[in-house]
Structure to design on (276 residues):
């Protein structure tokens, strides 16, 4: 009896997982299939769940216009620079907070925790004022700098840094290794799983940062992919097929990054779960 109950629960669990996976995958399926539909098919009711007339006109229009290349380049530039910066800054902060205790370190970490609970919308006006005073409006730097100050990144790296053996760093100091050498040669390689997880989070965050980039970037050649897609809506009608095609192209880099760092991401999350 117990065995049959176990099998029933297992089957029900698998069904629930498959249904959940289908629900999560469906928006992606709808986006990709919508990219190959014309306008009449895109707004058809009831909709065509499977495209009956496949067209490449949406991709051709995007390529002929040429703006999509600017948008993808800008998004890639912002996301890569932001990811590298966040990884370095957060790793150094985690190292300093756990392995180089200093006066006020607890206060600094408390400030980071408090900053995590501040809604982002509250910071938009002061951030815009700051960027305007620095002359960075309509500049890609304005899309990068706010990402470098993500409090969660410092919190995450601080938690992972506590698992690095202090004795290993002390042995390096005895051998005459400099502080920079300790960080890059001993500390940095050990926290690679955490770096991989943080890199995926940061890249995705910077790539999908629509609201702030919409506020700061108005020149069509400076727009990122998300802001650029919003310009594909005319005054009276939205070309859904064109938008879906642009969104599909914008999804590819994020997918490649996730696949490339997947093993580090999974390992980082697993270590974080074991630590917690």
């Amino acid at each position: 009896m117990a065995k049959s109950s176990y099998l029933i629960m297992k089957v029900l669990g698998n069904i629930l997982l498959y249904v959940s996976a289908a629900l999560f995958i469906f928006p992606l399926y709808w986006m990709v299939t919508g990219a190959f539909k014309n306008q009449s098919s895109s707004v058809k009711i009831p909709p065509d769940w499977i495209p009956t007339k496949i067209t490449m006109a949406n991709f051709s229009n995007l390529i002929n216009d040429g703006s999509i290349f600017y948008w993808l380049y800008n998004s890639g530039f912002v996301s890569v620079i932001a990811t590298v910066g966040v990884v370095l800054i957060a790793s150094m902060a985690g190292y300093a907070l756990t392995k180089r205790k200093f006066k006020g370190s607890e206060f600094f970490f408390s400030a980071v925790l408090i900053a995590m609970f501040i809604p982002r919308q509250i910071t938009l006006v002061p951030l815009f004022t700051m960027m305007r005073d620095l002359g960075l409006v309509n500049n890609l730097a304005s899309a990068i700098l706010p990402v470098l100050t993500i409090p969660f990144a410092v919190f995450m790296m601080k938690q992972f840094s506590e698992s690095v053996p202090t004795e290993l760093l002390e042995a390096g100091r005895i051998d005459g290794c400099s502080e920079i050498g300790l960080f890059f040669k001993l500390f940095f390689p050990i926290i690679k799983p955490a770096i991989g997880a943080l890199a995926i989070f940061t890249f995705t965050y910077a790539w999908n940062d629509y609201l702030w980039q919409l506020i700061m970037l108005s020149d069509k050649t400076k727009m990122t992919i998300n802001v650029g897609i919003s310009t594909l809506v005319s005054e009276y009608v939205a070309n859904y097929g064109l938008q879906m095609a642009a969104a599909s192209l914008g999804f590819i880099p994020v997918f490649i990054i996730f696949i490339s760092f997947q093993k580090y991401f999974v390992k980082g999350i697993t270590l974080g779960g074991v630590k917690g």
